[in-house]
């Protein structure tokens, strides 16, 4: 196959859907005008543990416009509860194995106990508040302090994908041999994704066919999950999701609301719109669990690690063993003979926790990278030097070489841009007026997600030389429609302005949910495969066609540019070929099979994070003044959108470090600050300008274009760089997240 | 910083009591008059989104905390989720759909695209309505001021530095 010279891939093109978004024309899942739509409103449980004794819905039913009040007594039973499997797996992916309103049990506060459907949103909302629920209440367990003594070590976590314990060598012996040890216990508040668009579904039945407009990271995940829960044939469900107002993991798993919307629509015989409230977003789509991580490092005087021990304790639900996988990366990224990692869980009255941006690594790398900073300090080594002394060119857990790394360049180029050299490592030595100034750094690492099933896309070229490329993936801010048009244009050998990517619909070729930074890699692989298959088909057709100027040419010698196939002196355009042969278009489906799980490579994305903070010496206020991140995410498909995603991730790291905390009220088992006024996310005034360096590394293992993804890596390590900078500024190690004013007073 | 709603009392006439049942309300949005039949409890945001099919103003919280629903009432920024539609009679409402009169994008819309000042786009109409107003008000003299005046509009994708760049770009060309 002749390679066309890539010309579009990587260019910092503006988003193709930019105009739709800035003009208000982009339609999100509750914004599709459908005649006769009714509105559903969820009644969530007031209690966190116990059961529903009685529901008096008479007042609600008597309200004008109310069409139905559905409770556990009237909601149909689900056909089947699918197991908990990350949506990446390409199967049904419920967010938890408990489906609400099947009996009177209450497992967590906010659990759906009734659904009110009415003509208008206002009527449904008002009537929902008139539903009187009587409970039998038990004291809930929700917090680390309440559950610590109930903890157990699970055999596997994360839908069975990850073992509960990981060991190599002898960590205890490694710690005994160490000249220096550091040991810290890190405690993180629970976090909620809070995409600006809450989860929502509009359900429309046409006979036995179900159409769902669903805000989701994977339309197929929605379809498969709803099909299993409702006992419907897959062929009868279509899921459409063109624009999604952010997700960050909250729409990665398919929680109860799309199914409930479908059930409500069937009950009232009308299309139903179900739009969760901001408050309900804290109890309906999972969360990042509150957690405690103990990290112990042993090292020689020279700073070579002798042992890493990484233990995690966190609450899970009453029905699933779930913890975000925080202790994988710490076993892999530094050379060290001895490692021990283990999860402990306890059953709590919460939902099953779920993915949230940089799942696992956001917290796991925080503990590791704060500990490395502390070790560097103990040893009197520069933090980058300590990391270089423990640098590994192989996955320390498996011994397999990295498929690509770039980490050394990330340290070097990041340090250079940030101005790290010559840093006075002594804490508390830099002061500007009231402000103590500090700098810190951290390694970033995030695994390339393992995929199982084939990923598909379709490419169609019309006789006028324009092309449409399709895959089922939704757009939730990643810029997928823009970058995939770039990839397809290069694969076909046409201009990117002649190529449109169509997406967000289960009628299009099947692709897994875009989660875990895997979207860009797997979709580009499928799109590239489809586009190059179509190019081969067209070239073959030309060289075999006696009427073509290319007749008889060796297909391997045919190159394509701007839609013109050329071999030596002969050429013919795609458009001429199709018109001449009376074909309206040509089409090919491309399929990509991900590398098998036993591929002998470590697959990891690396980066280096740097932050400068100012801490008010009297008030404890922390301001992040600047951040630099250097990342090696493999091939970058669009430098503009990639930078934006990395920047967003880095600012998420700032939120994780200094702002984001969901506070549990231990007596009632309810989140105490379920709203954007109380759950603090970064606002414009919190966000400094962010400096990003992209280091391109080639990777021919992960996928055909060597794309490792930019969705999570931007966040990983930022909180550690900030906490390390706070230590540098003040001499204080704060081991809780978020770091608050109170911690520094 | 958007205010929860404009001062909507009109002179000395006490408005006649209406509701709680649905009433006829005339809203002038982007220069067009619309007559709708709504209960007085309907917010301006839901009137726009659910009755008039003007979905540019977004619902991010319905509680006045995110700015996604920012529109203008008589040229002043207002949070449509905290404004009752019925109080907007006789006032001119502008949404993102009406920001540029012709097919040409408003300079801010263009700058947002060029600077990649959004990802998912859900906060974007609100950001643009706030940004256009603060440029008019002269509240974009430097980054510190932009940061402060734009902090009522949450962008969970955290496009903030690019949002500032877009605002600066328009400020500096006018
Ligand atoms: S929807 Fe109005 S401020 Fe959030
Ligand atoms: S672009 Fe997604 S919330 Fe701002």
TrEMBL record, chain A:
One Pfam entry name: MoCoBD_2
GO MF term (any one): oxidoreductase activity
Domain of life assignment: Bacteria
Entry keyword Transmembrane helix: no
Oxidoreductase as UniProt keyword: yes
Matches recorded under InterPro entries: Ald_Oxase/Xan_DH_a/b (IPR000674), Ald_Oxase/Xan_DH_a/b_sf (IPR036856), Ald_Oxase/xanthine_DH-like (IPR016208), AldOxase/xan_DH_MoCoBD1 (IPR008274), AldOxase/xan_DH_MoCoBD2 (IPR046867), AldOxase/xan_DH_Mopterin-bd_sf (IPR037165)
Alphabetical keyword list: Molybdenum, Oxidoreductase
Protein name: Xanthine dehydrogenase
UniProt organism field: Streptomyces parvulus
From TrEMBL, chain B:
Alphabetic keyword roster: 2Fe-2S, Iron, Iron-sulfur, Metal-binding, Oxidoreductase
Gene3D superfamilies named among the record's database cross-references: 3.10.20.30, [2Fe-2S]-binding domain
MF annotations from Gene Ontology: 2 iron, 2 sulfur cluster binding; metal ion binding; oxidoreductase activity, acting on the aldehyde or oxo group of donors
Pathway where this protein functions: Alkaloid degradation; nicotine degradation
Pfam families: Fer2 (PF00111), Fer2_2 (PF01799)
Domain (2Fe-2S ferredoxin-type) ranges: 23-99
Name of protein: (2Fe-2S)-binding protein
Organism: Streptomyces parvulus
Top-level taxonomy: Bacteria, Bacillati, Actinomycetota, Actinomycetes, Kitasatosporales
